[in-house]
């Protein structure tokens, strides 16, 4: 099985993949691991891979173009098309059943996010599945990618492995994050939502809160069970439920 890992920090993988069981598995050609530096596919002389988010706010967002080009280059070099995974706290929680399913693939392309995350259009165009290793915050997707590769590799024929258990913590804010966008305004025919370009910070905050609630409601409804809602959140959640039922047309 092969793993192509798209990252801003390929050197992080040298140690973990050059020791112990994974080292022996690579030497036996049971697994093939390649890291791809996203910076190599940046379009400017400064190798820029992140930009401030549209609509304002703290942090930076990884640009869509370098990730897409790195992904396309990787796909073109492999004989078999691979499933693309984004390591994300918003993804499906990693479990042994999920590991077993993924171990049946011929290969995986794994994208490691950083900063505030990746431009939403990466998710919409090339990502097949988002995976989280637990409800806690890390500095990037590299460590989760290592966990994913390790957990899958141990199930492959000829690779010695055992089953681990893990603990899950709660998200500090109780909700999944809203979508992020940065330049350009249009990528692969997909546009940044108009509200983020409006300059109206009140509307932007409302949109973000609503998108956050919507994602949590659709993906991790369990996180809402014990949450204390503000009046605005109650109102937004009602809107979301009506929209999902097709009773509101925007």
Fold and architecture overview:
- There is one protein chain.
- With 250 residues, the protein is an alpha/beta fold.
- It has 2 domains: 2-153, Alpha/beta knot, CATH 3.40.1280; 186-244, Trp Operon Repressor, Chain A (Orthogonal Bundle), CATH 1.10.1270.
- Helices cover 32% and strands 16% of the residues.
- It has 7 helices and 9 strands.
- A 5-stranded parallel sheet has the order 2-1-6-5-7. A two-stranded antiparallel sheet has the order 3-4.
- It starts with a strand and ends in a 6-residue tail after the last helix.
Shape designation = globular
Q: Quick check: average pLDDT?
A: 91
Q: How many discrete domains?
A: 2
Count of separate DSSP helical elements: 7
Gyration radius, rounded: 19 Å
What is the makeup of the main sheet?
A: 5 strands, parallel
What's the total count of β strands?
A: 9
Distance between the termini: 46 Å
Q: Helicity range of the residues?
A: 25-40%
Regions with pLDDT < 50 over 5+ consecutive residues?
161-172
Q: Based on the coordinates given, report the CATH architecture of the largest domain.
A: 3-Layer(aba) Sandwich
Order of helices and strands: EHEEEHEHEHEHEEHH
Which fold name is given in CATH as the topology of the largest domain? Alpha/beta knot
Residue share in β-strands: 15-25%
Structural class: alpha/beta
- The neighbouring-strand order within the major sheet is 2-1-6-5-7
Give the CATH level 1 class of the largest domain: Alpha Beta
Q: What is the fourth-level CATH superfamily of the largest domain?
A: SPOUT methyltransferase, trefoil knot domain
């Amino acid at each position: 099985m092969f793993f192509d890992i798209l990252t801003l920090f390929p050197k992080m993988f040298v140690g973990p993949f050059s020791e112990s069981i994974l080292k022996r598995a690579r030497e036996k050609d049971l697994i093939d691991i390649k890291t791809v530096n996203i910076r190599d596919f940046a379009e400017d002389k400064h190798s820029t891979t992140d930009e401030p988010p549209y609509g304002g706010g703290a942090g930076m967002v990884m640009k869509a173009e370098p990730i897409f080009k790195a992904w396309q280059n990787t796909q073109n070099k492999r004989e078999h098309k691979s499933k693309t995974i984004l390591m994300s706290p918003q993804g499906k929680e990693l479990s042994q059943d999920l590991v077993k399913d993924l171990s049946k693939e011929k290969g995986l392309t794994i994208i490691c996010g950083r900063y505030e995350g990746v431009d939403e259009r990466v998710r919409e165009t090339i990502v097949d599945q988002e995976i989280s290793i637990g409800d806690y915050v890390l500095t990037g997707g590299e460590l989760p990618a290592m966990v994913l590769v390790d957990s899958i590799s141990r199930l492959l024929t000829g690779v010695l492995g055992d089953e681990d258990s893990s603990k899950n913590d709660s998200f500090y804010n109780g909700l999944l994050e809203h979508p992020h966008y940065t330049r350009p305004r249009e990528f692969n025919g997909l546009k940044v939502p108009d509200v983020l370009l409006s300059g109206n910070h009140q509307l932007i905050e409302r949109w973000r809160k609503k998108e956050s609630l919507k994602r949590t409601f659709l993906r991790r409804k369990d996180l809402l069970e014990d949450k204390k809602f503000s009046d605005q959140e109650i109102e937004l959640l009602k809107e979301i439920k009506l929209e999902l039922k097709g009773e509101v047309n925007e």
